């Protein structure tokens, strides 16, 4: 059989985000796959060196477009470590609630993309509607639907408005009461099982060798979550489980995503009960004259895609000297995708790509 | 159907059919892709305005350039735009195609998209709300009625000037020119 | 945690000469070594349980004329004490035509990190199978992330010189 070259390119109905894969195909089987990133490269880290410490905040949240909140958290935590600023306790609780709501919204977006890829349009419409309800909460709290610049070094920008707790509880009850419908229509459906079981399989040894993190790793059986290993914000005050599965294929990854969403909703209820009173932020120095002495910091957190890290270096000026984000999609999209696509059918490329949760702007930055 | 529209339908049925069925090309160009799924799903339904996403440029009418454009993406935007059949309309979505936006000092993004392909309208914002897309679509309808949405005609007339600008940014282009002077002369004769 | 860090420090100091260890904070340990012994230090740490290469980064100290490469390692384990440690292995290279050996034989997921650093800083990794461009479309005289590349001047010289279509038509009409 002859080997043909196909471009699963940027303008394609099966591609979410601006990313391209070059496939070497023999009949219907893929023989070789090469990823081409770089369509969204803006030189973020160079731009961050030319803006002051506070001017970087509107820039940093635009690295990952689906879930900008963990990027802001990383930058704020790194600046607090470099400058030695303390965060009050109420602000830690507010940060945890805000991040868990962002996680629910991001997982619903991933569910929209995956259900659309397999042809379940009804479930895709439900998921996008529920994500819009969560974005309504963000709009009331911060003023913006897609980019909310809310986490600040020293706490958060403003406290919860009046009646906001009841709104969170109502929204989560609306979403939670639809979980049996989701289960009947999508998660327990035999068509989903036939299309996703055994596709894109990774053993635990392969995942560890190729640098997998997040739910790609948790679907192979290892219970690794940065919220338990290096706790930040208020995660050491609340109990939660880390769901895992055994098989390591696309079916297990989507089931891990569903279990994580339900854990996040329970966590938000517990945090709302335990939240103490107090101030929501500590003051920072004058942003026009703020210089940080020579130091470096490396912080990590668990975003909805996996382990996110930031390496920040300061050199006694009012701008960062070097910032480097370690994003989870970098290894997933460039090392693991090329290996997981070999010997699969061409109609499963979108299936595997979205179950690995690759977001193109995170690779290019 | 409105009674005062029957006159318009009888006068120019082609224009009315074009307006109310703008098929948008599915190309996730940049950041702005985060506000397109809410626009086309059930809450802010775009199909009641006649706008649905289609798979290939050969079937598309409307090109929404959502967000900033990097150098690599510009090549693919030009190829997709040249494959679309006429009449076609482009709308720049977000502040970045207008003047560079947030990334005005980046070495890899295009600052003024108007120099490389013709654009009929802009939507400002970072990100614009889904309702802004509908305001843009209704404004495009009035432009089509008056005959002012003629970006594609300008592309046909000034093709050498556009191609010079494209080559000064991307280097020598691999595909031959879309319009050449001899063919245009034949078409008008 | 103290116990674990002390064992690690004694182990490394006894196996290698010419190495400096600094326990900066509770969970961050900085190890400095020369560029020739990077591969042996990384293999030693990998066999000790730190088998996840998180990041390879590079800092451009233009005043001292060196590049400083940083390899950040963590552990794939369910144990929270060992899993919370971050090891930063640093080495310095000369800024003029820098070369290094690749660490792909130790950590196979280092391939895209080294490709990106080659493109953005100009560092050559000998032994790498595929040092082709990853993110950039055109070639630049100075690699773009170095400190002597001024992006605002580049935007001024390259993008602002291109005239709009109306300006071109006006100049054509005049001539």
Please give a structural write-up.
The complex is a heterotrimer of chains A (365), B (189) and C (175). Chain A contains 15 helices and eight strands. Chain A has 365 residues and is α+β, with helices and mostly antiparallel strands. In chain A, a hairpin with a 7-residue loop joins strand 7 and strand 8 (322-326). Chain B is mainly alpha-helical and 189 residues long. Chain B has helices spanning 3-11, 13-19, 36-40, 71-83, 96-99, 130-146, 151-157, 159-170, 181-188, and strands at 23-25, 52-54, 62-66, 89-93, 121-123. In chain B, helix 1 crosses helix 2 (13-19). Chain C has a single domain (2-163), classed as 2-Layer Sandwich (Beta Polymerase, domain 2), CATH 3.30.460. Chain C has helices spanning 2-15, 38-47, 80-83, 111-121, 151-158, 165-174; strands at residues 20-25, 28-32, 52-61, 66-74, 86-94, 99-101, 124-126. In chain C, the strands form two sheets. A five-stranded mixed beta sheet of chain C has the order 1-2-5-4-3, covered by helices on one side. A two-stranded parallel sheet of chain C has the order 6-7. In chain C, a hairpin with a 2-residue loop joins strand 1 (20-25) and strand 2. The mean pLDDT of chain C is 85. Chain A binds chain C through residues 37-38, 41, 43, 45-47, 50, 208-211, 222-224, 228-230, 298, 300, 307, 309, 311, 313, 321-322, 324, 326, 330-331, 334-335, 364, and chain C through 27-28, 51-55, 57, 59-60, 70, 72, 76-78, 80, 83-84, 86, 88, 107-109, 111-113, 133-137, 144-145, 151-152.
């Amino acid at each position: 059989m002859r080997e043909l070259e196909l471009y699963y390119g940027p303008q394609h109905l099966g591609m979410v985000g601006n990313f391209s894969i070059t496939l070497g195909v023999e009949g219907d089987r893929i023989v070789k796959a090469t990823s081409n990133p770089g369509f969204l490269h803006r030189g973020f880290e160079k731009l961050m060196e030319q803006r002051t410490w506070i001017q970087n905040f509107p820039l940093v949240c635009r690295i990952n477009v689906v879930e900008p909140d963990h990027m802001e958290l990383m930058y704020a935590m790194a600046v607090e470590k470099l400058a030695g600023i303390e965060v009050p306790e109420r602000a830690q609780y507010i940060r945890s609630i805000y991040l868990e709501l962002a996680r629910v919204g991001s997982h619903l977006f991933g569910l929209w993309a995956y259900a659309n890829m397999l042809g379940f349009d009804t479930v895709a419409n439900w998921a996008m509607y529920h994500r819009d309800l969560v974005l309504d909460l963000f709009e009331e709290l911060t003023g913006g639907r897609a980019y909310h610049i809310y986490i600040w070094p020293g706490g958060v920008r403003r406290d919860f408005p009046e009646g906001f707790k009841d709104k969170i509880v109502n929204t989560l009850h609306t979403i939670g009461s639809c979980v049996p419908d989701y289960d009947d229509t999508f998660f327990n459906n035999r068509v989903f099982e036939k299309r996703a079981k055994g596709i894109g399989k990774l053993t635990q040894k392969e995942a560890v060798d190729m640098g997998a993190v997040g739910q790609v790793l948790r679907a192979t059986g290892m219970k690794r979550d940065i919220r338990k290993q290096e706790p930040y914000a208020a995660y050491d005050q609340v109990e939660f489980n880390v769901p895992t599965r055994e098989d390591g294929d696309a079916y297990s990854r989507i089931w891990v995503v569903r279990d994580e969403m339900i854990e996040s909703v329970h966590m938000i209820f517990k945090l709302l009960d335990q939240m103490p009173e107090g101030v929501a932020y500590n003051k920072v120095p004058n942003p026009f004259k703020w210089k940080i002495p020579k130091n470096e910091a490396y912080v990590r957190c668990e975003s909805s895609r996996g382990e996110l890290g930031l390496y920040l270096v300061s050199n006694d000026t009012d701008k960062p000297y070097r910032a480097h984000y370690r994003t989870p999609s970098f290894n997933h999209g460039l090392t693991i995708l090329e290996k997981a696509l070999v010997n699969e059918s061409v109609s499963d490329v979108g299936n595997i790509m979205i179950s690995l949760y690759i977001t193109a702007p995170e690779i290019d930055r | 159907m409105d009674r005062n529209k029957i006159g318009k339908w009888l006068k120019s049925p082609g224009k009315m059919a074009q307006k109310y069925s703008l098929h948008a090309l599915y190309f996730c160009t940049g950041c702005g892709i985060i506000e397109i799924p809410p626009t086309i799903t059930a809450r802010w339904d775009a199909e009641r305005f006649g706008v649905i996403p289609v798979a290939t440029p050969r079937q598309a009418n409307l090109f929404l350039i959502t967000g900033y454009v990097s150098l690599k993406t510009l090549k693919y935007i030009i190829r997709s735009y040249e494959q679309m059949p006429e009449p076609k309309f482009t709308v720049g979505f977000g502040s970045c195609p207008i003047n560079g936006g947030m990334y005005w000092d980046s070495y890899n993004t295009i600052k003024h998209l108007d120099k490389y392909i013709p654009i009929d309208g802009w939507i400002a914002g970072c990100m614009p709300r889904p309702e802004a897309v509908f305001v843009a679509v209704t404004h495009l309808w009035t432009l089509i009625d008056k005959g002012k949405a003629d970006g594609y005609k300008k592309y046909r007339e000034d093709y050498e000037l556009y191609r010079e600008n494209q080559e000064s940014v991307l280097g020598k282009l691999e595909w031959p020119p879309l319009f050449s002077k001899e063919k245009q002369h034949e078409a008008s004769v | 945690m103290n116990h674990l860090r002390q064992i690690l420090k004694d182990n490394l100091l006894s196996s290698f000469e010419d190495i400096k260890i600094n326990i900066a904070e509770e969970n961050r340990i900085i190890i400095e070594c020369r560029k020739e012994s990077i591969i042996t230090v990384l293999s030693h740490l990998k066999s000790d349980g730190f088998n996840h290469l998180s990041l390879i980064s590079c800092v451009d100290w233009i005043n001292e004329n060196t590049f400083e490469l940083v390899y950040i390692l963590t552990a794939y384990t369910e144990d929270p004490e060992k899993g919370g440690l971050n090891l930063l292995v640093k080495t310095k290279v000369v800024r003029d035509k820098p070369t290094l050996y690749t660490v792909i034989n130790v950590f196979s997921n280092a391939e895209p990190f080294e490709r990106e650093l080659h493109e953005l800083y100009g560092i050559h990794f000998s032994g790498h199978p595929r040092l082709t461009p990853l993110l950039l479309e055109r070639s630049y005289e100075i690699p773009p992330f170095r400190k002597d590349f001024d992006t605002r001047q580049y935007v001024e010289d390259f993008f602002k010189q291109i005239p709009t279509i109306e300006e071109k038509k006006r100049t054509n009409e005049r001539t």
